[in-house]
């Protein structure tokens, strides 16, 4: 039985003519039906993550892929007097936090820039579909199940519709909402209780880049005091050179990250970012390394380490496969109510496994 607020993932397959195997391409995300985050996430997926929407964006923007999970279907299920909501989505491999920790809490400069370019692609897409993510971090970034060079942003439980029907929310500080998100990465606006915005997502990505490359953030020593964290972020926003000196005391500082943070600093709350401008800043960083955007992540290769990226990714993916496979069991179908994308309607009842 699922406990209150517990999230479970179970293997699922689009092929209803066979049993769900350990190589299934989808998962069912299951939570108690009164759990708010899954409802919020489901609304995002229904509005902005239908397969045909994502494919159209990929084609029109000439992308190799887009790291937004596809929504395949959803519904309600009753068991033992409890009601559960489920959603069918793509299956993924390891999350970046596990790889980051296994790699001595460092990613190479090239890997950080490549990751961030793909995340900018994701953010532009979800922002253009009226949503912001609000909780970008390594544990919410998953590698593709089949391609470790592809990364996907997941967990839209804090996703916020910042621009419903094309009208941007007003800047308004709300003490009841202060410090929403993950404390070490969340934006200054969120610390002040302001609703999430596009500039907030870009600010969060900046903090992620700094941590992934340096191994720490200046306020990590006192995360129990959210006001301290907020004040540190404000102080360093006003003096980005000081932030860079603190995090990168060596001579070879990543100038592109400083430029990125300066550009975020100039954004107004309701302003639409020039996403290509931010990409160009990161591409300049790759060029300074003698590299280019080749879509290769090389997550395990660091300047002062010898851990191999593919070995880590493979091991973590195997761990996830075993965990998922061990949770597969038959789910009763007779009392499931299914809402889904039309092309999967006839298959969903038979493919859900628990």
TrEMBL record:
<dbReference type="InterPro" id="IPR000719">
    <property type="entry name" value="Prot_kinase_dom"/>
</dbReference>
<keyword id="KW-0498">Mitosis</keyword>
<dbReference type="Pfam" id="PF00069">
    <property type="entry name" value="Pkinase"/>
</dbReference>
<feature type="domain" description="Protein kinase">
    <location>
        <begin position="1"/>
        <end position="275"/>
    </location>
</feature>
<keyword id="KW-0418">Kinase</keyword>
<keyword id="KW-0808">Transferase</keyword>
<dbReference type="InterPro" id="IPR008271">
    <property type="entry name" value="Ser/Thr_kinase_AS"/>
</dbReference>
<dbReference type="InterPro" id="IPR011009">
    <property type="entry name" value="Kinase-like_dom_sf"/>
</dbReference>
<keyword id="KW-0539">Nucleus</keyword>
<dbReference type="GO" id="GO:0015030">
    <property type="term" value="C:Cajal body"/>
</dbReference>
<keyword id="KW-0723">Serine/threonine-protein kinase</keyword>
<keyword id="KW-0963">Cytoplasm</keyword>
<dbReference type="GO" id="GO:0005524">
    <property type="term" value="F:ATP binding"/>
</dbReference>
<keyword id="KW-0131">Cell cycle</keyword>
<keyword id="KW-0067">ATP-binding</keyword>
<dbReference type="GO" id="GO:0004674">
    <property type="term" value="F:protein serine/threonine kinase activity"/>
</dbReference>
<comment type="subunit">
    <text>Interacts with HDAC1, KAT2B, SETDB1, KDM3A and KDM4A. Associates with the nucleosome through interactions with nucleosome DNA, histone H2A and histone H2B; the interaction with H2A and H2B is mediated by the nucleosome acidic patch, a cluster of negatively charged residues of H2A and H2B forming a cleft within the nucleosome core.</text>
</comment>
<protein>
    <recommendedName>
        <fullName>Serine/threonine-protein kinase VRK1</fullName>
        <ecNumber>2.7.11.1</ecNumber>
    </recommendedName>
</protein>
<keyword id="KW-0132">Cell division</keyword>
<keyword id="KW-0547">Nucleotide-binding</keyword>
<dbReference type="InterPro" id="IPR050235">
    <property type="entry name" value="CK1_Ser-Thr_kinase"/>
</dbReference>
<feature type="region of interest" description="Disordered">
    <location>
        <begin position="312"/>
        <end position="354"/>
    </location>
</feature>
<dbReference type="GO" id="GO:0051301">
    <property type="term" value="P:cell division"/>
</dbReference>
<dbReference type="GO" id="GO:0005737">
    <property type="term" value="C:cytoplasm"/>
</dbReference>
<comment type="similarity">
    <text>Belongs to the protein kinase superfamily. CK1 Ser/Thr protein kinase family. VRK subfamily.</text>
</comment>
